[in-house]
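Troubleshooting log. The previous structure file for this entry was overwritten by mistake, so regenerating from the original sequence record. Sequence copied from the archived sheet and checked twice against the printout by T.R.
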Amino acid sequence: MKPRISSKGAEVKPVNRKKRLRFAENHIDWTINDWSRIVFTDEAKLYPKRTITHVIWSGPRSVRAPPFEESLEDKSINVWGYLRYDGVVQLFRFEGTMEQVGY
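Regenerated output below.
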């Protein structure tokens, strides 16, 4: 088997490209005052002790990819954060899945 680096996530899909363009066109005339009322949020899984690279193993179907030495899930930290128009960013650590009540 031979490993190769995946290109997953390298490009924006055409459907998302259109959504982003539509969003930009709809908000092109917004002022600082308009943007000051908006908060962008996202959640992510961080792996502080390991660099993750998407590796794809290719080879005969009967051959399996080598197992990982340890589970990456055990080494991850869940964070939720936000970004305001003035650049203020805050991160919050949480356990499990982000639910509506926790959000």
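The beta strands are 2-5, 39-46, 55-58, 77-84, 89-94. Archived copy saved in two places this time.
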